[in-house]
Design brief:
- By secondary structure, this protein is an alpha+beta fold.
- It is built from 22 helices and 39 strands.
- The chain has six domains: 50 residues, no CATH class; 128 residues, Nucleic acid-binding proteins (OB fold (Dihydrolipoamide Acetyltransferase, E2P)); 216 residues, Phenylalanyl-trna Synthetase, Chain B, domain 3 (Phenylalanyl-tRNA Synthetase, Chain B, domain 3, 3-Layer(bba) Sandwich); 66 residues, Phenylalanyl-tRNA Synthetase, Chain B, domain 1 (2-Layer Sandwich), CATH 3.30.56; 193 residues, 2-Layer Sandwich (BirA Bifunctional Protein, domain 2); 88 residues, 2-Layer Sandwich (Alpha-Beta Plaits), CATH 3.30.70.
- Helices cover 26% and strands 26% of the residues.
- The longest helix is centred in the C-terminal third of the chain and has 19 residues.
- The chain starts with a strand and ends with a strand.
- It is found in: Cytoplasm.
- Its main location: cytoplasm.
- Its cofactor is Mg(2+).
Length: 849
């Protein structure tokens, strides 16, 4: 909502020197968010005055264009020259070239003199053009930034103005005014009016508000038999409510449609963001912005019979004021006459009864329509208007007669109209909302012991009537506040108007002995370690396709995985909750590689969603009260299992190419190393063994499990065919494991390795075994046989080729032995090694190479 300050000052005590920023600072106190400042003088400066054309001589030039060489007086005749600037004649008469032809000698116009600056930084200077020295410019409304018309200059007499020569044109046209723009939330529709903003400004500054609408309502005549015939026939109400609850009409005749729009009105509308069109249309918009009640003006001579408010019938069409023919829906609420639809109620009128330059009789409509009905119609036709914005937020049900009276007054005052006696006022009597506010409720909710005087005064200020009882206040809510429906809303009003800054800020004291949970501690440690190792954490959407879930969440091909389908997905092809993190990670990878990033190491941790046999609950409890324990238990029982997973991807090389450095391409080892890092940081042993998965390379895939055999996930390189068909880098490694299961397996703290007091002894052994025996199984057998002296064991070679029998392989290990009480001899280390080899010989038929 844009608020011209000159308009606001009519109804609120805004200081004369207050700026738009000052007004916004006050409105912020009562909950309006600052948006912008609109100040025409920021783009206009310098001498811009009223001038009178003394003479104009048409001249046709070689380019075929006819221009006028004009003599324009910019200082009253006989007065001393007061204007200064390079190029301004001392005589007060300027010679100006003008290409427009819509004026004659004697007309008063707006002259921008040398030294002036127009919107867009356009500086006016004295310059030679078309054989003359032109010292200034006769301006159009577009050049002044106050309209779109560039076909002719602004003739002030056309606006009904006859100002003195030399008058400051910016002041004359209201260009020194400024507007504050604030954001109005959907629950505070009354803020879409000068009336509502003036009331809130008075709240913010501690002033009383005199509601001008009450005076208009008192002045408005009652309905009578001479009123225009109106019938409301809503046979298909939305959610049980009638589409129209009040419909007021007034009629004027003898209106002069050619009467000019006064500059104070057009300048205020312009600052409020509404284009000036004609006097009748501008009055309609002006009253809407001032009171918050949208109006519609009909050319009464174009109406065919009485008005009926009804729902649309099948096949009906309407051409609206924007000259578009619209197919109507059965839920659309219409304004009709004997000819058919003449308007979309509360959204936009029809072209057939539009006021025009020939209109002399006007029927004024001030109605109240149902919020939901208007909102649906506006969205259905993609036709958001200033009227629909207000109706769908709720319009004061008691303001219609007052707004119609204001429109009548302006039509009479500015357009010379005559008021007819007939008044129509259809609608039921308004029943205000009454809310009980317990005496101690505001203190319990806000934390301030508000006095009874504060509560009563605050609620009275918003327009409510308050009756104090022994245990509660009985509050009758004002008609313009449909958002106040319960005691919580009243409490919010008290807190808002007394001041949010009065609410004490108290930091809670952390209970002793608490900190991060085990899960939080382990998760932070793992994420920090992966980041320190060079990976970057990312976040992907949890919504995937069914095919993605079937591919990544199942190791076997052609298997359908049970997944949870979204009722209202963002996109139809991502309408399922993820069973794996890898679909999102691959999307992130592809997006980044498409933007030129070639070397990527990324990871993510998040929940996956595994459906149970029973999902959901029969009914959801209502708002405003805590559900019972059994209800909560039933709701929780219907939720899917949501274990936390952790996954990562590697693509490209581990470093950039530099002189003397050859980058190494990421492969399965990097994925497995990331898993080993996670194992080390959590203190939980992860068993890495040969595995198979449809999305992974058939020979470069590791299965991950706990020591007790619990499956955790997979690591390795992705399948080449998958990479080719999904446009990913040709060699991409990945890992994914069940993080929740890993954390649950953690049994205690990680013990740091002590400082060794005695040296270690290394022994190497190369064993020939069958090629299909995993190295991890051989390693486990060696560790079992080596006994307590074994400190570490690592694989350093896997050879198959010349000298090795076909179907066999040679796997070489380094065994490190150490005793904590002595220096081991070579014989002791060799004996331990031989014991280890013996176990592999017995278990796998291994022989030393």
């Amino acid at each position: 909502m844009r608020i011209p300050l000159s308009w606001l000052r009519e109804y609120a005590p805004v200081p004369a020197d207050a700026t738009a920023e000052d007004v916004m600072a006050d409105l912020v106190k009562v909950g309006f968010e600052e948006e912008d400042v609109h100040r025409p003088s920021d783009e206009l400066s310098g001498p811009i005055v009223v001038g009178q054309v003394l003479s104009m001589e048409p001249e046709t030039h070689s380019n075929g264009k006819t221009v006028n060489w004009c003599q324009v007086r910019v200082v009253p005749e006989g007065q001393t020259q007061t204007l200064t600037g390079k190029g301004i004649e001392e005589s007060g008469v300027q010679g100006i070239i003008c290409g427009a032809h819509n004026f004659v000698p004697g007309d008063k116009v707006v002259v921008t003199l040398p030294g002036a600056v127009l919107p867009g930084g356009f500086a006016i200077t004295a310059r030679k053009t078309y054989g003359h020295k032109s010292a200034g410019m006769i301006a159009s409304v577009k050049e002044l930034g106050i309209g779109d018309d560039h076909g002719g200059i602004l003739v002030l007499s056309a606006l009904g103005l006859d100002p003195e020569i030399g008058t400051d044109a910016m002041e004359l046209l209201g260009l020194y005014d400024q507007a504050a723009e604030v954001n109005v939330t959907p629950d505070r529709g009354y803020g879409f009016s000068i009336r509502g903003i003036a009331r809130e400004y008075c709240h913010a500054t501690g002033n009383s508000f005199d509601d001008f609408v009450l005076e208009l309502a008192a002045k408005a005549p009652a309905a009578n038999a001479a009123g225009f015939p109106v019938k409301v026939d809503d046979s298909a109400p939305i959610h049980g409510n009638s589409g129209c609850t009040r419909f007021v009409t007034r009629k004027v005749t003898g209106f002069d449609a050619s009467a000019p729009v006064p500059t104070w009105m057009s300048s205020r509308l312009r600052l409020a963001g509404v284009r000036s069109i004609s006097l009748a249309v501008d009055i309609s918009n002006y009253v809407m912005l001032e009171t918050g009640q949208p109006l519609h003006f009909y050319d009464a001579d174009k109406l065919d019979g009485s008005i009926t408010v009804r729902r649309a019938s099948a096949g009906e069409k309407l051409t609206t004021l924007d000259e578009k023919e619209r197919e109507l829906h059965a839920e659309d609420l219409l304004i009709t006459d004997a000819s058919g639809p003449i308007g979309l109620a509360g959204v936009m009128g029809g072209a057939s009864t539009e006021v025009s330059e020939s209109t002399s009789s006007i029927l004024i409509e001030a109605a109240r329509f149902d919020e939901v009905s208007i909102a649906r119609t506006a969205r259905r036709h993609k036709l958001t208007s200033e009227a629909s914005k207000r109706f769908e937020r709720g319009v004061d049900p008691q303001i219609q007669a007052a707004a119609a009276q204001r429109a009548v007054d302006l039509l009479v005052e500015l357009g010379g109209a005559t008021v007819e006696e007939g008044v129509t006022d259809f609608g039921d009597a308004f029943e205000p909302t009454v809310v009980e506010l317990p005496n101690a409720y505001t203190a319990s909710r806000v934390g301030i012991n508000y006095t009874p005087e504060q509560i009563t005064q605050t609620l009275t200020e918003i327009g409510a009537s308050v009756e104090a009882g022994e245990s509660a206040y009985r509050v009758t809510v004002p008609s313009w506040r449909p958002d106040i429906i319960d005691k919580e809303d009243l409490t919010e009003e008290v807190a808002r108007l007394v001041g949010y800054d009065q609410i004490p800020s108290t930091l809670p004291v952390a209970p002793p002995g608490r900190g991060y949970t085990v899960e939080q501690t382990v998760r932070r440690r793992v994420l920090n370690s992966l980041a320190a190792a060079g990976s970057v954490e990312v976040f992907a959407y949890p919504f995937v396709s069914a095919d993605d879930n079937n591919l990544w969440a199942s190791a076997s091909a052609n298997e359908t995985v049970e997944s949870i389908k979204l009722a209202n997905p963002i996109a139809e092809n991502t309408g399922w909750m993820r069973r794996s993190l890898l679909p999102g990670l691959t999307t992130v990878l592809k997006r980044n590689t498409a933007r030129g990033f070639r070397n990527l190491a990324i990871f993510e941790t998040g929940y996956v969603f595994i459906p149970k046999a029973e999902l959901g609950v029969g009914s959801i409890p209502g708002l405003g009260q805590k559900p019972a324990d059994d209800v909560l238990e039933a709701i929780n029982a219907g939720l899917p299992e949501q274990p936390r997973y952790i996954a990562g991807l590697f693509a490209g090389t581990d470093t950039e190419a530099t002189p003397g450095v050859t980058p190494r391409a990421y492969d399965w080892q990097d994925a497995v190393d990331a898993v080993r890092l996670i194992s080390s940081v959590t203190g939980v042993e992860i068993v890495i063994s040969r595995g198979t998965h449809q999305a992974f390379h058939p020979g470069r895939t590791a299965a991950l499990s706990l020591a007790d055999g619990t499956h955790l996930g997979y690591a390795g390189e992705l399948h080449p065919k998958l990479l080719a068909t999904t446009d990913m880098p040709e060699r991409t490694a990945a890992y994914e494991l069940n993080f929740s299961a890993l954390i649950e397996a953690k049994t205690g703290v990680i013990e740091a390795t002590g400082i060794f007091g005695y040296p270690a002894t290394n022994q190497d052994v190369a064993l020939i075994v069958d090629a299909d025996i995993p190295a991890s199984d051989i390693k486990a057998a060696l560790a079992e046989g080596a006994g307590d002296l074994l400190e570490d064991i690592r694989v350093f070679d896997d050879y198959r080729g010349t000298g090795i029998e076909e179907g066999k392989k040679s796997v070489a290990f380094t065994l490190r032995f150490r005793a904590d009480d002595r220096t081991l001899t070579a014989d002791e280390a060799s004996a331990a090694r031989e014991a280890a080899v013996a176990v592999t010989a017995e278990r796998f038929g291994a022989t030393q190479r």
